[in-house]
Amino acid sequence: MKQHNRKQPLFLAFITFLVVTLHQSFAATDVPPTAAAPQTTAPPPAPPARPERGNYTVTNGNGTVCLMARMGLQLNIRFSSASLNNTVQDVLNLQPNVTKSSGSCDSDSATLLLMAEEKTNLTFVFSLNATSSKYHLSGVTLSAAWPDMSEPFSASNSSLDYLRGTLGRSYMCREEQTLAVAVNFSLNTFQLQVQPFGLTGDQFGAAEECQLDEDDMLIPIIVGTALASLVLIVLVAYLIGRKRSHAGYQTI
User: Fold this and answer.
1) What is the protein's major site of localization (predicted)?
2) Phi and psi of 105, rounded to 5°?
3) Residue 76: inside a domain
4) What is the dihedral of CA 7, 9, 12, 14, to 10 degrees?
């Protein structure tokens, strides 16, 4: 009787198992992995353009102008957004055509109140030191109720020391200035000229320019002086070299 080889069925079973395993492996590699959906974030809003310059005046009881200001104003506010349910930073330009000015003047203090759209009220308080005849912006208050605010916004600071000027003169700053008022509010001014005391009629007094304007004018002067000095050095070096070359020739 012939004996069956028991190794052959085991060998065939092993081959079958190997083929099935390789097929499943290749099938798995043929399936492209699921690509994760790209996460998109909304770009931050573009800052508004340079604000328009407005003319604001305050008159006293007899109708005489006692405070004048010309400036572009930009509000930087951090508030709680109702739509985003988060704290956001927003910038708003004050539009002169929809902003009304009022205020009051005393011997040592003057107030300018600007009332703009969307219930935005901005108050400037100037103080005068009679001894030194110097004035400065001592206080700023802002209240606003914009549509996206979770609650009305308010910020105030009565211990500021900005826009320092002399009685009878105006304070001018053409460059952009940032006036920090509170943690959640700062104010940018553009092409500012203001005089809260010592006005004669409806004209500004002689202007005292801010340090930013003086620095801006100083740079071209420094560059021009450096270029003039360089030209002078080159000219002197040329003349000295020419003199030496002539001295090298001897008369026979």
Assistant:
1) membrane
2) -130, 135
3) yes
4) -70
